[in-house]
Amino acid sequence: MTATRRQRRRRVRAALLGALGALGARALAASGATFAAGAARAARRIEAVGAENQYASVIAQIGGPYVAVSSIESNPNTDPHTFEVSPSAARLVANAALVVQNGLGYDAFMTKIEASSPSARRKVIVAQAVCHLPNNTANPHLWYSPATMPAVARVVANDLSALEPSHRAYFAARVRAFDDSLRPWLAAIARLKARFHGAAVASTEPVADDLLQAAGLRNRTPWTFQADVMNGVDPAPEAVSLVERLFSSHEVKALVYNEQVTDPLTSSLRGLARAQHIPIVGVYETMPTPGYTYATWMLAEVSALTRALADRQSTTRL
Predict the structure, then answer these.
(1) Selection from 160, 187, 188, 190 nearest residue 173 by Cα
(2) Closest Cα to residue 157, out of 63, 65, 67, 66?
(3) 292, 316 in Cβ contact below 8 A?
(4) What is the pLDDT of residues 217-239, one digit of tens each?
C-alpha cells in the first residue's frame, strides 16, 4: 500500500472517529439533559399531607406522579385520640404546599401546626368546610359518608391545579378516575340497602354511622351512649343496661365495633355479642395498610356488613 493511500485511510478513520465522538457527546448531552429534566420534575413534585391516611390516599390518587404525599395518622392499630404531634410530623406540615384534614375538632392538632409555621403558599382543605357542615355536627367521622371524598377530591384537584397549572387536565382526569373507583362501593351499598333495609344493628361508637345510614340500617344504640364512648366518658348505667339488652334479647343482627378504640366496656359488649352469636363487624378510624385505597377499604367494610347480615359471619380484622 502506498503512503498516499495509507494517509488517505488515516484521514477517513480520523474523520469517522471524530464523527462518532461528536455523536457520543451529543448522546451523552441528551441523556444528561433528560436526566436533569427528570430530576427537575421530581424536584418540582408538590409536597402534600393528609392528616389521616385516608385523605392522603385521595391526594395520591388525584396528584399521581406530581405529588409527594405523607400522612400524619396512619396506624390502624392505635387509638387516634391519643395521637401526639412529633417534630417530624410538624416538619411535614411546615413544608407542605397542600394539606387535607378532617375538621370538626377531630384533628385540631393540624390547625396548631399550621399556625406555628404559616405559609402564604400553603393550601389547606378541611373536609368539614368542603361538606358545608356546622361546628356542632355530632359525628366527625366524615369519610364514611359516600358524599365526602368525591367532594374532597374535586377540591384537591382544583388546588393542585392552582399550584401546578400545567397539569390541570391530568388532575381533572384523575378526579374522574377516582369517582369511577368508588362505583363498586356505591353499588355494594345499594345492594345491601335493597336486601336488608331497616335491619337493626348496634355499635360501640358512631364511627360508621354515616355508612349505616346510607345502607338503610338502623343503629339501635342510643346516641348518648355512642357519644360518651367516643369522648372517653363513662356512659350512664341505664344506657349500658339498654345496650346489653340489645344483645341478650337478640334485638340486633350485628355489632359494629371500633377496632381502634377499646376499653373494658366495649370489650365486654363484644364478648356479650359473641356469647349471643351476634356477628361483629370491625371498623376503623384510620385506613388499614398496606393493600388498601380509600375505595377498596370502604368496599371491604360494606362487604363485612353484608357477610354479617347474610351469613352471620364476623369480620373483626380487615
Answers:
(1) 160
(2) 63
(3) no
(4) 999 999 999 999 999 999 999 99
Can you tell me whether residue 124 is helix, strand or coil?
strand
Bridge partner list, 52: 73
Closest CA to 156 of 251, 58, 25: 58
- Superfamily (CATH) of domain 44-181: Nitrogenase molybdenum iron protein domain (3.40.50.1980)
All three cell numbers of 137, joined, read 355536627
* 103 contacts 55 by C-beta, under 8 angstroms: no
Q: What is the dihedral of CA 150, 156, 109, 147, to 10 degrees?
A: -10
What are residue 200's phi and psi, to 5 degrees? -95, 135
Q: Are 288 and 297 in contact (CB under 8 A)?
A: yes
For 159-195, what is each residue's pLDDT tens digit?
Answer: 999 999 999 999 999 999 999 999 999 999 999 999 9
- For 261-273, the pLDDT digits (tens) are 889 999 999 999 9
Count Cβ atoms below 10 Å from residue 104 Cβ, excluding itself: 21
Kindly tell me the sign of the dihedral angle through the C-alpha atoms of 134, 117, 57, 183. Answer: positive
List the one residue out of 125, 73, 75 whose CA is nearest residue 96: 125
CATH class of 183-311: alpha beta
Of 87, 88, 133, 86, the closest CA to residue 106 belongs to 133
Query: Which of 10-24, 80-94, 215-229 has the highest average model confidence (pLDDT)?
Result: 215-229
For residue 39, pLDDT over 70 is answered with no
Q: For the packed helices 294-311 and 183-196, what is the interaxial angle rounded to 10 degrees? A: 20
The angle formed by the CA atoms of residues 194, 185 and 208, to the nearest 5 degrees, is 80
